[in-house]
Amino acid sequence: MKIPIRYAYSDGESHSLNKYIKLLFHYLERDKEFEELIVKVRERLSQDIAILEEDKPDITVVKSKPLRSETAKLPDIRKPSIHIVSDMGIKMDKETDAIIKEYPFLQDWRKGLRGFIVGDLFEISNENTSIKLRVKSKLYPYIGNYTDRDSEEGVKIVINSRVSKKEIKDCIDSNYSRIEYYLNYLPSLSKQSTTRENFERDRYVVYLKSKWDKTYREIADILADGSNENSLQKAYEDFPYH
Question: Of 114, 124, 199, 215, which residue has the fewest beta carbons closer than 10 angstroms?
Fold first, then answer.
């Protein structure tokens, strides 16, 4: 099985291929167990691809030419002008995890492995850098390798070891176009922002409801600002702190 490889480092600099990486891929291309895993994953995923709207920021896979790895008759799961749906991304995560369980030393190249599963190129990148970009959006629960499922909605810069001020600035500068893109899918104000319209009123509503056991009708009378019971109930349920 042919595995075309390429460096894709975020620093933008050119990198020569380490001789040990060359040797690893030399044997990986001849590893029948690895080939079988890739074949089976491609076969399973090929049954789950669905078409989405063109404006959604999911992974796009466009068929252009036969896979170079098809010398081993690997199934081509790519389809013309399609987007992989959110559920597909989750399935890809599971399938990638299954391969990495058998080949744990590929964990550093998780993104490259995913790319090879759906395409024909294994990109070797510095995925385990000290600074990472993570995104969580209710509108789009799956955002490729930047998906963050564990924390609150937003765009995060994750720092997992000591870095300099320059490294942080360089990371933001090099990723700003991507950050700006994902910011467009976030609300103008967070749910927790005290500058959000009616935030302090809603805090008062929560207090009257939870500590004074007032009905929404009674709260409406206390507020005397034209609020109705339904809107006050929604305000109470939507308030971030209870």
Answer: 215
